[in-house]
Amino acid sequence: MPTPSSLRRSALVVLVALVLAACTPAPRHQATAPTSGAASASEGVDPALAPFYEQQLEWKVCGSQQCAEATAPLDWSQPEGETITLALRRVPATGDHVGSLLLNPGGPGHSAIDFLPSFQQLVSAQVRAAYDLVAFDPRGVGASSPVTCVEPAELDALTAWVPDFGTDEGIAEAVRRNAEFGRACLERTGPLLGHVDTVSAARDMDVLRAVLGDDALTYLGYSYGTDLGATYAALFPQRVGRLVLDGALDPTLDSGEVAAGQAAGFESALRAYVADCQAASGCPLRGDVDDGLAQISELFDKIRANPMRTQTDRELTVSLAFSGVATPLYAQQSWPVLTQALTSAFAGDGTALLQLADQYYNRQPDGTYATNQNEAFTAILCLDDRAPAEPEAMRAEAEQIAAVAPTVGEFFSYGGAACADWPVPEVGALDSYAAEGAAPILVVGTTNDPATPYAWSQALADLLSSGVLLTYEGEGHTAYGRAGSCVQETVDAYLLTGAVPEEGARC
After folding, report:
1. Catalytic residue positions, numbered
2. Worst-scoring range by mean pLDDT, 25-39, 48-62, 300-314, 441-455?
3. Do 413 and 397 form a contact (C-beta atoms < 8 A)?
4. 6 near 414, Cβ under 8 Å?
5. C-alpha span between 296 and 289 (Å, rounded)
6. Which pTM was predicted?
7. Separation between Cα atoms, residue 68 and residue 136, nearest integer Å
């Protein structure tokens, strides 16, 4: 269930106009060239899994794209049991086809199928000529076999809810409400709820690689998509072709460390925004940066005490207000939108912040939700890792987070309440992500990324035995497709030729 700490591990990919940057990274070594061949794509597979690896996709015309469905085991430890469906969309290569480029926009829970039309506009003509662009919704997400939990009105109430973590009774209430949400997910989703973990999704990706006819996987993952890509590399190092992991997660961190890192990241991004706002005309934040942050904190306190009116039949609670403030921080080009929304909020109108929160949660004007990303987010998160749920442990963690993020830290705290009584067992992560023997893997990190701090990209590049780091010096979440020609050309060169930049390359 989305809680005030629901931005943990999130990836809202904001696609905006490119900002030109300059760098001249030199090639260092080559990544495995993508090749296609149905016979070799499933070579060495366990015979029990052969029906999945050797299935034939039936592509149909779906508007300007092609669509198909693949089958995967519900439980990878029981391949002879129930199965699930994985939805795919494809834009065929416009030139000499060299393979498929699989996409994941992050989340967990974001739909790659919904992302594909935007992604088509981001990649170069050369990449589109060489690759089929293939979007797939991971298990539990979107058009694939989905996690389903509650009706839209119930989700409205949950996203707007403001827990009271100041008392043991308030913490117990948060645990109870989250457990109730989990039980609704299990009732509506069934056994799939226990198998939407990242490791299972990465195993699905190898089936997709094979049925697409590729000997090696070519993949671009943003934010949580880097976790999925790193997990794939660890499971199938010899099948790694060209993997781009942009806005990386460090898969060795536990939930508390992720929350603290993101809280510090959003605090830093908010500080940068305030400085930029105050340097321009029309900024509602007075004084210096610390004064501006204090005014935002005071606004949160005011809304917490009395939810703000909007030009709708919904009020702006402090939980929604924070989501509204956080959403434009994903891309510097969206900062003027935040200035307008804060100006209105200081005048007593929360409509603009509510609209930004709705954008984050993918809520439509008619009250429905365009996708199941909110439900899938929690389901995947609770399978992958569970933070301590004891009140004292959560309080200690909250104090640590507040120390590094005094303005926004409260919204990243007490995450253990979300999964404390989740109705299916934790699956957990892998023991190692070194991916020994894998071809070079390109990790892209942004120096002031709010959602996936730069240190995580550094850590993942070091963790991967063949990781290579490209640094983008700038603001915002992820870089490829929004950070200018330097990042674009470097990533494109890797995808097209396998060339990776020299150590220490920066854009």
Report:
1. 223, 449, 477
2. 25-39
3. yes
4. no
5. 11
6. 0.91
7. 10
